[in-house]
Amino acid sequence: MLVSQMAYNISLILVLFLMFCGEMNAMESELQKRQMVMEEEELLGLFEVMDALLEDTEWGQAHPQPCTETPWPGVECEVSSDIQIFHVTKIHIGPDIISPPCKTTAYLSQSLIKLKYLKVLSIFNCFVSSPVTLPNTLFGPFSSLEHLSLESNPSLFGEIPPSLGDVPSLRVLTLSQNSFQGSIPSQIGGLVCLEQLDLSYNNLSGEIPKETGGLKSMTVLDLSWNIIEGVLPYSLGQLQLLEKMDLHSNKIIGTIPPYLGRLKRLVLLDLSHNLIVGPIPITLSSLELLEYLVIDHNPIKGGIPFFIGNLRKLKSVSLSGCELIGPIPNFFSSMKNLTALSLDNNNLSGPVPPNLGSLPNLDHLNISLNKLSGVLQLSNDFIGKLGIRLDVRGNSKLCINDHPKGKNLSLYLEIPSCLSIRDRNDNVSFDDGPLQEDASEIKPSWYNSNISSCSSLLDDLPIIMFILACPRVLLSTAAFNKSSRSVGSDNNKHAIQLPPLLPT
Ligand SMILES: *[C@@H]1O[C@H](CO)[C@@H](O)[C@H](O)[C@H]1NC(C)=O
Ligand SMILES: *[C@@H]1O[C@H](CO)[C@@H](O)[C@H](O)[C@H]1NC(C)=O
Ligand SMILES: *[C@@H]1O[C@H](CO)[C@@H](O)[C@H](O)[C@H]1NC(C)=O
Ligand SMILES: *[C@@H]1O[C@H](CO)[C@@H](O)[C@H](O)[C@H]1NC(C)=O
Ligand SMILES: *[C@@H]1O[C@H](CO)[C@@H](O)[C@H](O)[C@H]1NC(C)=O
Ligand SMILES: *[C@@H]1O[C@H](CO)[C@@H](O)[C@H](O)[C@H]1NC(C)=O
Ligand SMILES: *[C@@H]1O[C@H](CO)[C@@H](O)[C@H](O)[C@H]1NC(C)=O
Ligand SMILES: *[C@@H]1O[C@H](CO)[C@@H](O)[C@H](O)[C@H]1NC(C)=O
């Protein structure tokens, strides 16, 4: 279609050229040709915009017909349906288009408003040295902008202009990793078509405007890494199409509004690193599609809520540093889709549910820095599979069964050996109340039939006798040895991997 239109235009130009050949000089025919293809004002507007951005002052001369004969990869055009005229619909500057680079004094020209048909404006890593603001006058109801992405521009600062809220066609607004300050303008509530709002990694303060709840088409809301304060507005419960809500690393206070349970499409909820208090509302149990529940580092307090066990699709649960108390509930053991569980840095007590080790997909388990107790009964296979992604340290009353000939799991996991605790515990003069209370719990699993015979075998008899008496221990130790070699080179000490932006 494009080609035939171009051919049509070119033939028209040819006819004109032949008609006026005698009278016109080359310069005039060039102008005529251009006018046939693009409106002069729009073309000049584009030249001014590019001139304000790019190092190359000759961009206009090098690309006199950017929509047709002299294209540039960062500019796209569309032909209007009624009259055969091209309009600039996309300007993109980013790492994939490196030549010419942005100039050090790059800025956004007011001439952008002459590009009335512009749908996509995306500028990455362009404003890096001299300070630039986003003028309030660039946007308005006259604009056709659908997609505005200004990302990784460290010298782009100042406030987000309220006039952005007047661009009703906007569907994607990404202003991530700039230096924007001030509060999020409430006018943003006017963007009725908005599907994605990403203002992450700025210096935005103030509260989340309650008008945000009016953005009924929104699927992605990312305000992470700012200094946003105040409570979560109840209106957020109206974002019924929301799939990703990422508000981590702000200064949000108050509780999680119960209305968030209405966000039935939610796949990711990240409220970590804020000042949010508990309890986590039970209404969240209706978030049936939730895969990532990330609430770590908030003063939630209380026990781990039981409804989490109903969220069957959960892959990753992070409740580290939430001042939680009470036991690790057994329901985690039936969440077959779980790949990462972080409960570290709380005050959780009681035993570690042994069935956690039989979760088929669990690949990261951090329960360190709690008050867990008893014998750690995770299988050696599991311990070997997770390698350094298993962290049980810092639970002084948690121990592991070692046996003298096997790999020293106590040393490996950096928790006490149950044998040494038992020896100490047997001594009447050893004074550690809870340890003595839990004494029955601390007995290694292979002691449960007959302690005295097994321990004497361990100490005195040849290894062959030991195999007869306690075959399970030796077999599983061998398995550990085997699998520990296979993960030996794994140095990934990463916490939970969050998914990238959801597909639109
Ligand atoms: C954010 O604000 C703080 C204090 O207001 C300032 O120290 C910091 O440099 C700012 N960061 C950016 C990226 O502007
Ligand atoms: C795991 O997730 C799938 C869909 O992703 C779901 O069909 C399945 O029921 C879940 N498994 C469990 C044990 O809940
Ligand atoms: C555990 O509880 C003690 C006593 O209440 C408190 O001082 C401590 O900060 C808590 N630790 C964590 C990690 O919440
Ligand atoms: C587990 O959590 C502790 C404390 O929060 C942290 O220091 C440690 O690096 C974590 N371990 C892993 C393997 O993620
Ligand atoms: C394993 O190492 C720990 C700490 O060094 C020690 O107390 C324990 O006796 C060792 N266990 C065995 C079976 O060697
Ligand atoms: C056990 O207690 C006795 C005294 O009652 C003491 O001499 C001995 O050192 C203690 N042993 C251990 C392992 O603590
Ligand atoms: C332990 O072994 C002794 C003999 O060595 C036997 O009398 C006792 O009944 C056994 N106890 C259990 C619980 O099997
Ligand atoms: C365990 O691994 C060591 C080498 O790391 C090897 O010498 C030993 O034979 C292995 N033991 C078993 C039971 O596989």
TrEMBL record:
InterPro entries hit by this protein: Leu-rich_rpt_typical-subtyp (IPR003591), LRR_dom_sf (IPR032675), LRR_R13L4/SHOC2-like (IPR055414), Plant_LRR-RLKs (IPR050647)
Domain Disease resistance R13L4/SHOC-2-like LRR: 164-372
Keyword terms, alphabetized: Cell membrane, Glycoprotein, Leucine-rich repeat, Membrane, Repeat, Signal
Biological-process GO terms, alphabetical: response to other organism
Superkingdom classification of source: Eukaryota
Membrane topology label: Single-pass membrane protein
Presence of the UniProt keyword Glycoprotein in the record: yes
SUPFAM superfamilies: L domain-like (SSF52058)
Signal sequence, renumbered to the chain: 1-26
Subcellular location: Cell membrane; Membrane
Pfam families in the cross-refs: LRR_14 (PF23598)
GO CC annotation: plasma membrane
PANTHER family: LRR RECEPTOR-LIKE SERINE/THREONINE-PROTEIN KINASE-RELATED (PTHR48056)
Entry protein name: Disease resistance R13L4/SHOC-2-like LRR domain-containing protein
Organism, as annotated: Lupinus luteus
